[in-house]
Design a protein that fits this description.
Length: 298
């Protein structure tokens, strides 16, 4: 890969309005061999690249991630590649999103493998340090006082404050025309859209359908931490979310199936939920009412 900034290796130790939920992982056309993307480990190198003649005036698509890329991320990158002249991937494990320090330490960090997987789709990878993104030592935060306090926010205090803060910083740094987010993190997508509207940011937020394994489980870097038996059991999560008549029934059925349930909630025709298996936390959502008619979907 082509690096910008100091020639050093980052450590590779352990380090988601309208959801559509395909049951199979969509096939993504692989572009022909591409030149290695620029890998910017320093913000100054990224700013210089962004201001260069080859980037100025080009439409730019941006996919923010925490790394550990899977087929769901690849689908975001492929769409960004199809819709923009330049594509940037960010890889940053954001410490302000984790309430459990052990969870932060366990999150997979695999920069070399991630860059290799993203190579056919991206022109640059921005992979800054926490010190670079938070020169204020975390003193300045962006807070939303309504939707962020429910569902995920009720079970992970401060999580969305961390998400919105880092997304705002990255949008200012990258200056994209479009930014791509997976619909698997439905509440996050709603909050990011709200932030962009409230702060008059000149970027289009593009929600992309959840990518699933053949058995219906939404792809997540956390899935790899499940045993084979728990991984098979996890496929019941989206099925029970979808089949129940209401959120309370879905929660009861999930508990009966052996899941530890954090919450199940119906909001804007979407059923969202979070469960745990073997201590691994999984989130998902399914649309249970038509977005236009609000008629139940079966």
């Amino acid at each position: 890969m082509t690096r910008r900034g100091p020639a050093r290796e980052r450590r590779d130790d352990l380090q988601e309005d309208r959801p559509t939920v395909p049951l199979l992982t969509p096939r993504v056309a692989q572009p022909v061999a591409s030149p290695a993307p620029e890998v910017c480990l320093q913000l100054d190198e990224w700013r210089a690249l962004r201001a260069s003649p080859d980037w100025t005036g080009r439409t730019l698509g941006f996919v923010p991630t925490m790394g550990a890329l899977h087929a769901g991320h690849v689908a975001l990158l492929a769409r960004a590649r199809a819709e923009n002249e330049r594509v940037v991937l960010s890889i940053f494990v954001n410490p302000t999103q984790f309430e459990d320090p052990m969870d932060l330490d366990r999150y997979p960090r695999m920069l070399e493998a991630d860059v290799a997987r993203a190579r056919p789709f991206v022109d640059a990878v921005l992979a800054p340090t926490a010190e670079a993104l938070y020169p204020d030592d975390y003193r300045y935060r962006l807070t939303e006082y309504s939707h962020s306090l429910r569902q995920e926010g009720a079970h992970r205090p401060g999580h969305f404050e961390g998400v919105l803060t880092v997304v705002l910083k990255l949008l200012h740094l990258v200056q994209p025309r479009r930014a791509y987010f997976g619909e698997k993190d439905w509440q996050q997508l709603e909050l990011v859209r709200g932030m962009v509207e409230a702060l008059f940011l000149p970027v289009e937020i593009v929600g992309c359908p959840t990518v699933r394994d053949a058995d219906g489980l939404a792809l997540s870097s956390r899935n790899r931490r499940l045993s084979a038996a728990a991984r098979a059991q996890a496929a019941m999560f989206p099925r029970l979310l979808r089949s129940a008549d209401d959120a309370a029934e879905a929660a009861a059925q999930l508990r009966a199936a052996g899941f530890e349930v954090d919450y199940v909630d119906d909001c804007k025709g979407v059923r969202v939920g979070a469960v745990r298996l073997e201590g691994v936390r999984l989130i998902d959502n399914v649309r249970v009412k038509d977005a236009c008619t609000l008629a139940p979907i079966r």
